[in-house]
Amino acid sequence: MTWLQKPICVTGATGFIGGRVCERLVQAGAPKVRAMYHNIRHAPRIARLPVELCRGNLRDLKSLRECVGEAKTVIHCALGDWHGIASDTGHVLQAAKSAQVERFIHLSTTAIYGFRPTPDCNAEEAPYRTTGHEYCDNKMRAEKVVRNFCRRGLPAVILRPSIVYGPFASWSTELLGNLRSGEATLIDEGKGACNTTYVDNLVDAIFLAIENEKAVGEAFFITDGERVTWADFIRAHVAMMESKPALQEITEQEATTYWQQQPGNWAKSWREARQILVGGELRQLLKRIPVMASVLSWAWRRYRDVDVEAKARFRDRLAGVSGGAAGARAAKYIPDPTTLQIQTHNVFFRIDKARRILGYQPRVSFAEGIRLVEQWLRFADYLP
Questions:
Q1: Model pTM?
Q2: Partners of 9 in the β-ladder
Q3: I need a surface site. Which of 56, 176, 211, 228 has the fewest CB within 10 A?
Q4: How many CB atoms neighbour CB 190 within 10 A?
Q5: How far apart are the C-alpha atoms of 343 and 234, rounded to whole Å?
Q6: Beta bridge partner(s), residue 103
Q7: How confident is the model at residue 246 (pLDDT cuts 50, 70, 90)?
C-alpha cells in the first residue's frame, strides 16, 4: 500500500467517521496524516494522535489549499452546513485538483435517494432524483459536483454508506437517551430496513477505494451486507440496558394521520420547521459561536433528562398544538415525519458492486458491531 506512505488529508477529522479514519490511518502506519478541523474544541479525539492538525474552512479555498498541502490522497468526510454541502464539496475538490492528488474519496450517503427510497434505488445505477429534503438533495448535488471534477481528470471515488454506527456514534448515544425517556418507538413493529454500516467496515471500503484503479469514477453502496431491521437495531440497545424499558409501538398510518390532522398544513410545516429549529443545519451554524456552542451543550444535557411528557408539551408549544391534540400526543410518543420515512422503507441496499470491484467484504458483523458498541458505551459511562 504505497499510498499510505504519502501525505493524506482527512476533512471532517473531528467528526465520528473522520476521527475513526484518522485512527485507522495511524494504526496502519501512515507517517503523515493532515487532519482538518474547524473548531479546535472538537478535536480532543484526534489531538492525541500523531497527526498534523490543520485548521480549515470549507468556504475558504485558501485555507483548504493549505490543509491539502502536498497530500496525494484526500478523504472528504466533512459535512458543513446543509445548504452549502454541494458548494463546499466543490471547494475541497478545487483544492485537491490544484494539488494534483492521486485519489479523492467522497463520503456520500444512501440518502441521496431520500429518506424513503423507492425499490429501484437498491443498486447504484438508479438515476438521481430530488426528494424535497434539503440534506438529501444537497448530498445528491454534491455527488454531481464530484462526478464533474472526475470527468475533468480528478481521480475520485464516491462511497455511499447508510446508518453508520460504532463507538462515538450518535445513533447509539441518542437512542439510549430516547429509550430512557420513552421516545424510542417501534414503527410497524420495526420491520423497516435499517441498512447498518459499522464504521470500521466503512473505513475498510475507503482504503480499498484508494488502492483500486477500477474504482475511479464509480459510486458504491457500503453496508454490513445484512438485512438488519430497525427492530433489530433498537432491541439490541434495549438488551444492553440494566433496566429494560418498555418499547412503545405505533403504526405508520397512526403517526401519519396524527400529523395530517394538525392545523395549518402541519405535516409540511413541521417537516420544514424541524429541519430549521432542531435540525443539524441550525446547530452547526450556532456552534460556530463559542458561547452558543456552550449553551447548546448545556441545553441538550438538560433536555435529555426531561421526562417524556414534558418533552411532548415543549414540542406541542413549539408547534402550536394545544388542547385535545396535545393530550392525545402525551399518551403516545409520535415519531416525527423524517423518522417515519427513515424507519418505514423496505429497501436493502445491495453491495454486490463493492464486492465485485473493490473486493469489499464486511469484516464486522452486526452482532460483533453491537458488542463493540456496548463495550464503548460502558467505557464512556453511557451504560453502568
A1: 0.84
A2: 34, 74
A3: 211
A4: 19
A5: 11
A6: 73
A7: confident
Residue 105: beta bridge partners?
75, 157
Q: How confident is the model over 51-57, as a mean pLDDT?
A: 95
Task: Residue 88: name the closest of 100, 76, 98, 99 by CA.
Answer: 76
| Neighbour-count burial of 77, counting CB atoms closer than 10 A to its CB (0-12 exposed, 13-18 middle, 19+ buried) | buried
Amino acid occupying residue 305: D
Q: How confident is the model at residue 327 (pLDDT cuts 50, 70, 90)?
A: very low
The set of cell numbers assigned to 107 is: 463520503
Burial class (CB in 10 A: 0-12, 13-18, 19+), 156: buried
C-beta atoms surrounding 301 within 10 Å: 9
Closest listed residue to residue 241, CA positions, set 180, 161, 300: 180
108 closest CA partner among 219, 225, 228, 226? 219
Report the chain's mean pLDDT, rounded to a whole number: 88
Q: Give the closest residue to 85 by CA, choosing from 59, 55, 121, 111.
A: 59
Which grid coordinates are listed for 374?
Answer: 456496548
**Strand, helix or coil at 274?**
helix
| Phi, psi dihedral angles at 9 (to 5 degrees) | -110, 130
